[in-house]
UniProtKB/TrEMBL annotation:
Residues 14-48 form a coiled coil. It holds the Pfam family DUF2205. It comes from the Eukaryota. This is Uncharacterized protein. Keywords: Coiled coil.
């Protein structure tokens, strides 16, 4: 009985896989940067929204007291 043969890759296939892995890593890094930028932007917008709610509340409070 013969031993099962393990699949082997050529140097060209290995280089292709390494290049694909490098490209995927770069895409992942870019996506992570974009997500962080969006998180920072949304945090700023939430803070601005809270400020505007308080500002409008302060304007409306005297009007509702009448």
């Amino acid at each position: 009985m013969s031993e099962p043969q393990l699949a082997t890759s050529t140097d060209g296939e290995t280089q292709d896989l390494k290049l694909q892995a490098k490209q995927l890593r770069q895409r992942l890094d870019t996506a992570v940067e974009q997500i962080r930028a969006l998180q920072n932007e949304s945090s700023g917008l939430l803070a601005e929204n809270k400020y505007l709610e308080e500002y409008i509340g302060n304007i409306l409070a005297p009007a509702s007291a009448k």
